[in-house]
Amino acid sequence: MKVNKLKRKTIVKAIVDTLQPLDFVQALWEGGAAAFNRVDKWSDIDIMVAANDDAVNKVFQHTEKTLKKLSYIEILCEMPLASSGGFHQRFYKLKDTDKFLLIDFAIAKLSKPDKFLQKEIHGNALVHFDKNNIIKCKPIRTEDFKKQIKAQFDNLKIKFELFHDVFFLKEINRKNYIEALDFYMNFMISYLVIVLRIKYSPFHYTFRSKYIYYDLPKNISKKLEKLYFIKDVSDLKVKHKIVKKWFYSVLKDLNL
Predict the structure, then answer these.
(1) Of 2-6, 200-204, 230-234, which range is least confident?
(2) What is the pTM of this model?
(3) If you count Cβ atoms within 10 Å of the first and of the last residue's Cβ in the chain, which end, N or C, has fewer?
């Protein structure tokens, strides 16, 4: 017998209807693709909740009870590192949903000042309820943000110089090609991505590859794409030189 798949709207409504009446839950909104008006059939559900500091476990309990009424929870994955920043995050995969319709559920303690609400960075939150005007967020202070980028920029120049002509070439010379590839991916090309973001989408300079096809011009993202795919060692050596040249060219354009 064919089972009807749960839809995005059904899941979101069930969570909202459960949490809104609770006095220890202050606000609930959607981020991610919904905040950028880019929801498609592959999008997950990014739900953010602002709750009283001592109510995190209770919010998870109420939410999971509701999800279990909708369907069997096949996967529950807790993200322990999120809690170090004042967030508590769990991912859920329900049995009766499309496999891409994961629920990314995060709780921000009320005392946490940064709730990932700056429009310039995180888009326009899709608000389902806000009891005490919590979601209202001041615009980013441009001068402070510029200082932040300048500090990052100066640090990148130093680290790129260190890794591209010392660590990368050292492992190439040793014929330790896996290590050389690791340096290429995790330091050289990732640093190139950061400076390209500073140039074309500065508010997302910390986003790594996330949203890269939306944030960079199409010709730039396509050129970058080719540098991610390595055919063999000879190709790696060639692309190392391309990344190096492009990185310093962008630095010159930025002139920070």
Answers:
(1) 2-6
(2) 0.86
(3) N
